[in-house]
From TrEMBL:
PANTHER family per the UniProt record, alphabetical: FAD_NAD(P)-BINDING OXIDOREDUCTASE FAMILY PROTEIN, TRK SYSTEM POTASSIUM UPTAKE PROTEIN
Pfam families the record matches: FAD_binding_3
GO terms of biological process kind: ubiquinone biosynthetic process
Gene3D superfamilies, alphabetized: 3.40.30.120, D-Amino Acid Oxidase, subunit A, domain 2, FAD/NAD(P)-binding domain
GO cellular component, one term: mitochondrion
Name listed for the protein in its UniProt record: Putative polyketide hydroxylase
Keywords on record: FAD, Flavoprotein
GO molecular function: FAD binding; oxidoreductase activity, acting on paired donors, with incorporation or reduction of molecular oxygen, NAD(P)H as one donor, and incorporation of one atom of oxygen
Domain of life: Eukaryota
InterPro entries per the UniProt record, alphabetical: FAD-bd (IPR002938), FAD/NAD-bd_sf (IPR036188), RIFMO-like (IPR050641)
Chain ranges of the FAD-binding domain: 58-415
Source organism (scientific name): Chloropicon primus
Transmembrane spans: none
Amino acid sequence: MASLIRGSWGGVGCWGRAGSRLEAALFPAGRCLRLQVAEIGSTSSGDKDPGNKREVLRTSVAIVGGGPTGVTLSLLLSSFGIRNVVLERKARVSNHPQAHFINTRTMEIFRQIGRLEERVRAKSPPMSEWRSFRYCEGVLGHTFGKIDHFEEYEGEESRDLSPTVVAHLSQNRLLPLMHEELEKCPSSTFLWGEEFLGLAPARDGVRMTTRSCRGEDRIVEADYLVGADGAHSLVREAVGIQMKGDGHMQSIMNVHFTSRALASSLKSEASEAMLYFVYNPSVVGVIVAHSIETGDFVAQIPFFPPVESVSKYTEEHCSNLLLSAIRRKVDLEIHNIKPWTMSALVADDFRRDRVFLAGDSAHLFPPAGGFGMNTGVQDAHNLAWKIAYVLRGSACPSILHTYSRERRKIAIKNTCLSIANFEETVKVARAFGLDPGLASGVLKVISQATKISPLQQPLERFGESLLTLGKLQTSSLSPLRPFQQMYLQGLLTQERSLRLLYPEEDIGFCYEDPDIEWSGSKFPKWPKARRSNFSPKIRTGCRFPHLELRLHCNAGAATLPQQDGVSIIDLIGEHKGSFLMLVLANSGRGKEFRSAVRDLQEESQFAVTTVFVNSNPGGAMEPGELLVDADLSHLEPQSDVAIVLRPDGHVARIFKLPIDLSSECLQRELLSLGLKPREKEHRNFEL
Ligand SMILES: Cc1cc2nc3c(=O)[nH]c(=O)nc-3n(C[C@H](O)[C@H](O)[C@H](O)COP(=O)(O)OP(=O)(O)OC[C@H]3O[C@@H](n4cnc5c(N)ncnc54)[C@H](O)[C@@H]3O)c2cc1C
């Protein structure tokens, strides 16, 4: 079981437990438990720092930040048996819902983490509640248009692409499920209320200083450090990596509220949707329905500082705005009101020596399209196996260089896509004569002028009047209303508005695609057609497409069918301790390949499992060999090839089997992928 230490940030009422239910009972909430580092099960010792008498915690990987990125990384490292410590400065999971859309690739990754995918699916509301977006005058008011995102992806078609499908579960409900999985991981230690303060000089590895919620300073030493510490990453700052792009696209006021009355009206009127884009003379904004069951909503309302000040958004003002956005008097409770800056930023590099950045610390996009959290989880998936293989001696440290190159490329792409998505929402606003870009421009001029103090108040009032005037164009009494409605219908029916499903970017992204050219300032326009028909391919750098396999197992001297309908995505996950080498050849070539692999593995053991596809090379399978049947015809693979798959499911190499296949030739291929013959003490490494 993972060790878990909890404490409230700010030094009051700390409490904790180190691993067991018994300890939780002995030290209930509110009671102080002195934290002994030596108690933390998965770390190596509780030595003292000689000069300062600070406790020293040693681990293989230190992760700063216990958001979705940090926790995913911890879970995945633990699945490789790699000791890791997560330092999280908060005392508990925040109750702000934040991200909520979980894409297919993230769900595939969750399938590799205990029963996480199954549990996320079970907690996710029924799809009828979130399958559409509504464009409306008010959540319970007139609807201008509605888009159902699943109309064309329903049924078998999406099942052909993956063993799983997308889900809708807010971050504050997802994280507790992840923590439950974490508690089952003996290699993970999660420290609540522990803040990373900075890096300290180190001869080998990484050394950092931290402070607990009780004000105790500590030294943490690790082989590697991963900064998953969000938008304002201190780890990023400590290693001097810059973020580039647009740091201020729009100011947004986030209002988290619950209203069971609103939820039950939506249900009884069959008007459920994931997002409500609201346009009326009093308020323009987006209402996110996080959970109809619990009545959890977040309103995202654009605001324009300095013409509008944060202090204007009092609970009373927000309550009035919400009622205007709902268009009906309902009971509601506001939980918090937080300004938020929408930006489009990507870090110059995702790695400096032994320090990596992942998630929001490395990239920030507009939320349109829901790529924020998903990209972070997928960063963790790319990084976990690389660190694990290097620490286990199965791969050379050079493999770690590929992390920044691969993930930064995807971050830049997802940023461009998210900006394009945001612009789609702006197009709809323009249908109502609202132009946030223009508003920002005018207000920028006003804000310059307001620096001259005698002009300040009149100009601020002028700015506010402009905003009100803009919103008036959304009035149902506007003479332009019929034209607005026609234009909007055009946008919605021509599928030119914001989408929810992006199969190509979700599961079709490719690490070998050419980089998008970006100088570090304005992001280039999203280069692709709005809607492309995605058909998966076997291509170097891409995720190997989902296939249903018939898996054979040994029965005496033969190998017989054992299990039908196993997805290759899951097979890769189950065998993540080794690369899979799919052999597509007739049984004669398969036999030659098998003997070359055996010769090679006898002298130097690489972390590789050979998978013979549709052709038995003869006799029963040996350890390190699998036999499967699969229909690959739609993927049009070449024959007489070996396809090498990495533990994250991406194709590392496709190589034609030469006529004179030898173990030397195979060795060259594997070494060039960064794999290393395992050292003797690691030869029995089984997951
Ligand atoms: C208000 C809001 C609304 C959002 N809505 C959406 C949405 O609708 N859809 C979407 O896809 N994305 C949304 N996002 C973005 C999404 O939530 C993030 O992309 C996602 O949370 C990133 O996860 P992460 O783990 O990388 O970072 P975070 O979730 O930010 O986690 C970082 C963690 O690091 C901890 N930390 C920071 N500094 C330190 C330190 N020095 N020491 C120890 N711990 C530290 C923090 O306490 C935090 O728990 C939203 C974000 C915000 C703020």
